[in-house]
Design goal:
alpha/beta, single chain, five-stranded parallel β-sheet, 21% strand, 15 helices, 441 residues
Length: 441
């Protein structure tokens, strides 16, 4: 049995901890805040509850595998339900696309915008089929090494083509470019710096659909907290990790305000920039910055818009509305994200875009990108895309430091539960079972 210290109690850290504990390791999880979950936690105020971060997920097999490999199946813990729509897009020309979760309805929805767009969209998503299979088998689901990537994987990761360039070459209609690029612009990326292969997110949305948990995706945190207790993971809340202790080229402990915590293996599930001993290893990367966020509690009213779980209002700023929290007295809990030239109150900007809820506001929580980063100790959106070299400039899951592995958004090529969940699965593969630890000694 090895002593494993997991730094960070967000989804990535929790997922890695329960997997490793199930493999027989003695696991201790250290979290700087007073609650687990990070961006996958809930926010509460005046009887309203909102998801602090994502409200839906793709590739549900990632969550199912996590719960199955750490104990009871997901279906015995949570109701993971498919959504009929991935999201609704509203464009500046006042046209609307309600993007379904499967191929044939997607084709029909795009054709309703303009005949022929459906076939273009179907061809676009299909073009990523091989990319997904190659990257899944040789990169996303197996531990990889920068200098020993399979040829097919390296060809994609080293391609100079950007998503911006491929979109411009593929689509004349700006609306299709906006829909395909939205998952990246929503996370703060410039499409001119995003590799073209990353566009496979559109393929994942179509093939696997969007999923959520009734009452809020934050309930995944509740279920994982219970799983940590079942697997006897020792959890220390309010424990700030100041650095990873490296001796002789190996991680041997972490340094906290209370002293050093010894470890045979350290799993880092936070931004490596927070660790002075590791900062130089990622000095050429930058974090993706969260949007401006406003959580609003609304009183019930006949004229309150009935919106799907996510609505994107394109323009400058881009505004994303996510109804779906819980509210008292038949009210509503909405989360609004703003990106771009947001020079006014986000609810004023929302009203200018045609959705005015200001008369119905009961309570609100406003959070700037800086406040979110300070609260979470880093960005839950991971590493900012700065071209093809970004993949090799970040850590994850392998590192140059023996005994140190990484999980979480900063160890993956994308944010969100699927990529972060896969990173935790890679950590379990790298470390291995307790009777034969595989991490480098």
């Amino acid at each position: 049995m090895s002593r494993v210290v997991v730094v960070g109690g967000g989804f990535g850290g929790m997922a890695a901890a329960v997997r490793l504990a199930k493999l027989g390791h003695e696991v201790r999880l250290l979290e700087r805040s007073t609650a687990l979950g990070g961006a996958l936690a809930a926010r509460e105020q005046d009887g309203f509850t909102w998801d602090a971060g994502p409200s839906s997920t793709l590739v549900p097999a990632v969550l199912r595998d996590l719960f199955r490999k750490s104990g009871r199946p997901l279906e015995r813990e949570l109701d993971l339900e498919p959504l009929d729509l991935v999201r609704e897009h509203r464009f500046e020309d006042r046209t609307v696309l309600r993007l379904p979760a499967t191929r044939a309805p997607q084709v029909a929805a795009f054709d309703a915008l303009s005949p022929g767009l459906g076939r273009q969209w179907a061809d676009w998503t299909a073009s990523f089929t091989d990319d997904w299979e190659v990257l899944r088998r040789g990169y996303l689901e197996v531990p990889w090494q920068r200098e020993a990537l399979p040829r097919e994987v390296a060809a994609r990761l080293d391609s100079r083509e950007t998503l911006h360039k491929r979109l411009r070459r593929t689509f004349r209609d700006e609306r299709l470019r906006l829909v395909a690029g939205h998952p990246f612009t929503a996370d703060g990326h410039d499409l001119r710096n995003v590799p073209a292969w990353a566009g496979l997110v559109s393929y994942l949305e179509q093939r696997f659909g969007a999923w959520t948990v009734p009452g809020g995706l934050h309930q995944v945190t509740t279920a994982l907290t219970a799983r940590l207790a079942t697997r006897r993971v020792e959890v220390d809340l309010g424990c700030e990790v100041r650095d990873v202790v490296v001796r002789g080229g190996r991680a041997v402990a972490v340094r906290t305000d209370q002293g050093e915590v010894d470890a045979d293996v350290v799993v880092l599930a936070v931004d490596p920039r927070r660790m002075p001993a590791l900062a130089r290893l990622v000095e050429r990367t930058m974090p993706a910055i969260p949007p401006t966020v406003c959580h609003v509690g609304l009183r019930a009213a006949a004229d309150l818009p009935d919106l799907p779980h996510e609505v994107v209002l394109h323009g400058d700023p881009v505004i994303v509305v996510r109804p779906g929290g819980t509210a008292p007295d038949a009210g509503a809990a909405w989360t609004i994200h703003g990106r771009g030239r947001l020079a006014e109150d986000v609810l004023v900007a929302l009203a200018r875009a045609g959705v005015d809820v200001r008369p119905h506001v009961v309570t609100r929580i406003d959070l700037t990108p800086r406040e979110l980063v300070q609260e979470w100790g880093g960005s839950p959106l991971g590493v900012l895309w700065q071209g093809r070299s970004t993949v090799r400039r970040r850590l994850g899951p392998d590192t140059p430091v023996a005994g140190l592995v990484t999980a979480g958004a900063h160890a993956t090529p994308g944010a969100g539960l699927p990529f972060v969940g896969l990173s935790a699965a890679l950590v379990a593969q790298v470390v291995g079972p307790a009777d034969g630890v595989r991490v480098r000694r």
